[in-house]
Amino acid sequence: MNPNVVCFYDNTSSTASYVISDRSTRRAAIIDPVLDLDPVSWRVSSENAQKIADYVTNESLTVDWILETHIHADHVTAAAWLKKLVGGKTGMGVGIKDVKRLVGELFNVLDQTTSEETEYDVLFSDGAEFAVGEILGYVIATPGHTPTCVTYVIGNTCFVGDTLFMPDSGTGRCDFPMGDSETLFDSISSQLYSLPDATRVFVGHDYQPDGRAVAYETTIGDEKQSNIHLTRDIKVEDFVRFRRNRDKKLSPPALLFQSVQVNIDAGAMPTPESDQKRFLKIPVNIFKPEVEGELTFEPV
Length: 300
What we know:
By secondary structure, the chain is of the alpha/beta class. It has helices at residues 47-58, 79-86, 96-106, 110-113, 181-191, 220-226, 236-247, 256-263; strands spanning 4-10, 15-21, 27-31, 34-37, 44-45, 62-67, 76-77, 89-93, 122-124, 129-132, 135-141, 150-154, 157-161, 200-203, 217-219. The chain has a single domain (4-263), classed as 4-Layer Sandwich (Metallo-beta-lactamase, Chain A).
């Protein structure tokens, strides 16, 4: 059995979110939903997430899962918002445990991040199995972009987050702390490229190179043949060299600090302080730009 897939594209962050459903049981999963955060007024709104909620309601779907492919650094997840509205268990790769201490150090909240407890309902290890209605799914750990990255394989589809993009866009950056280009190479060449060529691939972002129309679906066969960064014939040393040189030229995501603070807690906003206002922290002078190919979070 294979799922029905509907994409919801956010123009601001170029993020592709998905609703995956089993036509026979009307059970569904939501992947990588976006909560709107204005970077000028810092107002949070739910236009993107509301479209997903409306679709779920109109199609009479029952949401079993709200799944994240990784800790996003360019948008705030709507997982917590949607869970309250349409239900479902939230899921994330078990690699989030490795990220929690880093986030604690970065924002000086180690006392809040050293616990094994998490706001996510389920943390998936490599090979973990789940289902969307009667359609079986499983998890492939695909670190490299971040240590939290996983791919969800559901029927004949896979949802790769930022590990792979469309063939004309290549692969995700590897310069975040605990990211690694050699690890990403292995995740793609050994894990994803071992899937059947006909497997449908749904990417986490599309940046519309050369102004083409938005595209978010390809296949494993097309990626192996045509991905501009990593075909099946590329050697690991060539990919690592390319990825490091390219990452040196990339700017940090605009919502990096805001996103990780919220996404580490499955989309829950910070706890209100004594005046009932919620605050996000923004560290100053935290990057060391002289470290090539790596966004190093240390005071300069």
